[in-house]
Amino acid sequence: MKILEKTAPMSSLRIGFRLLLVIVLTEAAIMLCYQLFGINADSTWAGIADALMLGLISSVVILRQVVRPLQQASQQNALFNTLVNNLDVGVVLTDPRRQDHPIVYVNPAFTRITGYSADEAIGNNPRFLQGDDVDEAAMQQARTAIAQEKGVRVLQRNRRKDGSAFWNDLFLNPIFDNAGQLVYWVGLINDVSDTKALEKENRRWASAMQQSDEAVCVFDATGNIEYANTSFCNNVRLSPDDIIGRSTLPFWDWESEAYISLTESLQQALSWSGRHKRYRADKTSYEALSSITPIHDEQGVLSFVAVHRDISDMVTMEAQLRQSQKMEAVGMLVGGIAHDFNNVLAGMLGNLYLVRKRLKDMPQLAERIASIEQLGYGAAGMVRQLLSFSRKDVHDVKEIDLVPFIKELTKFARVSVPENITFDCTVEGGPLIVSCDPVQLQQSLLNLIVNATHALRENNDSTGKIEVRAELATPPESLSDAGVPVSDDRKLGSEPRPWVCIAVRDNGAGMDQATQERIFEPFFTTKPSAVGTGLGLAMVKGYVEALGGVIDVETAPGAGTSMSIYLPLSEEAQVAAVEEDASLRPGRGELILLADDDFHVLEALSSILESANYRVVTTTNGMLAMAAFDEHADQLDMAIVDMIMPKASGLEAAEHMTQTRKGFPVTLMTGYDKQGSVISPQESHYPVLRKPWEIHRLNSVLSAALDSPDRVSAGNAPT
After folding, report:
1. Per the CATH hierarchy, to which homologous superfamily does domain 395-568 belong?
2. What is the mean pLDDT of residues 527-549?
3. What confidence tens digit (pLDDT) does each residue in 224-271 have?
4. What pLDDT digit, counting tens, does each position of 556-598 carry?
5. DSSP H or E segment with residue 155
6. Pairing mode of beta strands 638-642, 591-595
7. Are 171 and 155 in contact (CB under 8 A)?
8. What fold, for 90-197?
9. Angle at 24 between CA 18 and CA 28, to 5 degrees
10. What would the mean pLDDT of 119-136 be, rounded to a whole number?
11. pLDDT tens, 673-713?
12. Can you give the pLDDT at residue 342?
């Protein structure tokens, strides 16, 4: 190797000097011996002996001082070459005494790593291995070490001959001669690309583990935690420093079947998974879904990796789903009986109306009949209320005066309020006309009254008080500032017409801020599971907002609660007539087609119409209704058809009639539309008469159909 070129001359000079010194000293010793023993040094045999002795001694010296060192050097050089040539690490030798520190030697490993042959590398500066993605910090570290003639280790990204990148774990070391002068730089090139890729993969997995939403921990065979990610620490509410070395067992419910099953699996080094209760460090508990797997390290030491998921929200959702399914079952049950029950009520109330009209001369009996009618309409209202509660009914919005409405409501609610609670009602001003569904509004207010009663349930004395108050008022600006949803045409603070406030106040325990923020969430309740569902206030809020109103809450712990509903007053203060002595609109011999599959409904309605001077054609299914229309199309003035009938629906019959005779008035009649077709886009062209019908609503249907100026009279209908 060329590294020996500078040291060889110095070694040769030293050996020659030693050889000359040995020859001189040997010759001097021979001459001294000749003189001591009286031998003539000039004789022939003395010269021969002198030469032999001098040659022998010189040979010994040359063997020891020249031949053997050269053999050893050759052996060391061969060993060094074998070692360097068989290294997996690339070796690069540069000469710092020449311009630009050129490479003077590379080993075969350098060629294997970089793809450059020795001829391609020698003479170049090592920087030819660099690419565009060089690490400037590492390069500066290497430059500083070279300037200070010190060894250095840097990790640099280099390029192979084919352009591919590799990570170079580079060792740079200076080589000095015996005089302490720098003669070479040796660079050891180690391709650590696979190691870097593995480190990157490990970092990615470690980062994924640490940032995972799943709580992960590793514990040994005794249960002591060796690792825990952030989610695990958050779940148990301990810092990473506090949790390492702590036993995982206290976080389990020791009396549960899950814990017993877990310990059996751990003892047998088996996997385990299941749903169970876990405890936090503060002794609070939560539902978790866990999976525990045994693992072994390189030495075969057993550990376990546990993955926990906090399923508290899922448990809550399951409970909500079960409650929702219960509500759906109630809705299906109510919807199943609503149609038939309303048909029964319609037939009964229709006949009661006819009987009452014939008992004008018997006022006491007529009064009894009227009372039965009111009970029938009350039963119909109960069905509507159940349908509304199960979200299966369309709101029947109309204008009502809140003054009598609130007074009647409080009389009804008084029965459900315990006697030890004072219950007052105050209505200021009047009339207070709003557009709403009376049944829905009644249900909403009753819900607030029931909540107030529950807030006072622990009062055993007579200090409890509930007040219902209705008055003109303006919603507080705080509701608008808080972004309370209000319909576009009724923005808070910008609506010129007044609002009415219906407030339900109690002097109960009140609510803290955390509870107040959640009271309108579906399924949230502070009542026991057997008492409340958490749906009441959510339904109240949704209904009030559907009317363009807002609801405000004023409460504080120990200061009671005030729930205020703000509704805009109606622009047209017209109150729906109370059905006491209402009479059916008198007819002028108009011909009306009636279709209903219920005989009692059909008979009652046809009798009512005939008693008011209408002529009636009756059918019992959709196909017969269309056939009757085709037969009497020129004579018919209007049609009232039941929505749900055999063979063809009322909607199909109505479509047939209006397509055959343009502008023909058809009214759809329904007790409850199970298929939901009443709210279809097609139905929007037809008015709906709900069973059991009230006389004033029947009057509205007749007037709309027969008194319209655009009506095409029978006999002049286009076909």
Report:
1. Histidine kinase-like ATPase, C-terminal domain (3.30.565.10)
2. 67
3. 999 999 999 988 899 888 999 999 888 998 888 888 898 888 888 899
4. 888 888 889 998 887 654 344 334 446 788 999 999 999 999 8
5. strand 152-159
6. parallel
7. no
8. Beta-Lactamase (3.30.450)
9. 140
10. 88
11. 554 444 444 445 788 888 888 888 888 889 888 887 666 55
12. 80
Q: Domain spanning 212-310: which superfamily? A: PAS domain (3.30.450.20)
- Mean pLDDT, residues 624-631: 94
Q: What is the CA radius of gyration of the chain?
A: 52
Measuring CA to CA, how many Å separate 503 from each of 11, 32, 470, 626, 630? Answer: 114, 142, 6, 53, 57
Look up residue 390 and give its DSSP letter: T
Show the DSSP H helices in 237-391 as ranges: 240-243, 257-267, 312-357, 363-389
**Reduced 3-state DSSP string for 522-555:** CCCCCCCCCCCCCCHHHHHHHHHHHCCCEEEEEE
> What amino acid occupies position 266?
L
Shared fold status for 90-197 and 212-310: yes
Domain boundaries, the chain: 2-85, 90-197, 212-310, 395-568, 591-706
CATH number attached to the domain at 591-706? 3.40.50.2300
Cα–chain center distance at 289: 18
C-alpha span between 276 and 176 (Å, rounded): 71
Asked if 352 and 365 touch (Cβ cutoff 8 Å), the reply is no
Long-range contacts of 537-546 (CB under 8 A, 24+ apart): 537/447, 537/451, 539/389, 539/443, 539/444, 539/447, 540/444, 540/447, 540/448, 540/565, 543/437, 543/440, 543/441, 543/444, 544/444, 545/485, 545/486, 546/395
- Using a 10 angstrom Cβ sphere, with 0-12 exposed, 13-18 middle and 19 or more buried, the burial of residue 174 is middle
